[in-house]
Amino acid sequence: MRAIRVQQFGAPEVMRVEDVESVPLGPGQVRVLVRAAGVNPVDTYIRGGQYGALPELPYTPGFDAAGEVVEVSPLDAKGMGWPRLGQRVWVGKRGREGTYASEVVCQPEQLHPLPDRLSFEEGAGVYVACCTAWRAIFGKAMAKPGETILIHGASGGVGLAAVQLARAAGLGVIGTAGTKEGLDAVMAAGAHAAVNHRVSGYEAEIRETLTRAWFGHARPRGEIGSAGIDIVLENLANVNLQRDLDLIAPRGRVVVVGNRGALEFNPRAAMGKEATIMGMSLMNMTAAEEATTYAGVQAALDAGALKPVVGAVLPLAEASEAHRRVMAGGHVGKIVLTP
Ligand code: NAP
Known about the structure:
6-stranded parallel β-sheet; 29% helix; alpha/beta; 10 helices
């Protein structure tokens, strides 16, 4: 099989395609033919050696994939008949042998059915982005229909999934992006309003959107938007956290999903509004939280409420270009590799 192997941490070019031996399946394991592998910002932090938990070298990057089951160990899935040979699946795989490869060996619990309406490329955008969005909105912020959510950084993988999920759950959704293409994608995903976070003073535009009657009826707690934003899903906290606290309603919640540095922050804003700031890391999920998150994401995929947006598809050999693009900003949705 072919796989990207990283022999040393460093620049994107350390990722090279190599021919590697297929490993035999262990008891209960499943082999998946990878048809598409998803690229995430975290893949670049790990490849660069700048992440807290680094794999032993050499390793194959990638947490996300979609493909077909091509081999099932005789002791398959604890006798439950799952997964079946030939089944289309989306994959969420952790560990040293990642998904940037033509095949991956998985535990059955790392596989989930890929609905027929989704392509393999779309399926490769489910695990990290959609599970992060679902867990931030429902697992952490405990969002309720009728609340307003600001998705700060809504045009990327996490953001577009969050827009779709929040809209389907009955929230008022404002998303931000930094390009015209990104703003269009945010609206197409179902946002009530899209605002450009690269325009100075864009907070005023966010406040203005709160005066509009998005829901066609009054908010349960009074005037639409009179109190501000109930929830912020924050994808760049070091830039935006102070701004989030200025925009948020009393007793609002901010979920920090993405952060790339430090900031000077006045906690008075949180104190005065009795706001809650929560951190969220997908990799911290307990088994029970995983079960809840996967069930929520799968239900949204099955119902057609959630469909990852694929912005670019590149061959596996161009993984280094994919890493440059995901960190450059301005891309829309997921970047996907095909082996
Ligand atoms: P992505 O696809 O690269 O999207 C990044 C998003 O951030 C884009 O919408 C981008 O918009 C936006 N952005 C750029 N500048 C911004 C600004 N000043 N204010 C607000 N947004 C801004 O990345 P992703 O996969 O969606 O992930 C988003 C972040 O969450 C990354 O930092 C990632 O590492 C992190 N993450 C964390 C977890 C976790 O478990 N905590 C899981 C997944 C991802 P434009 O490019 O249009 O400006």
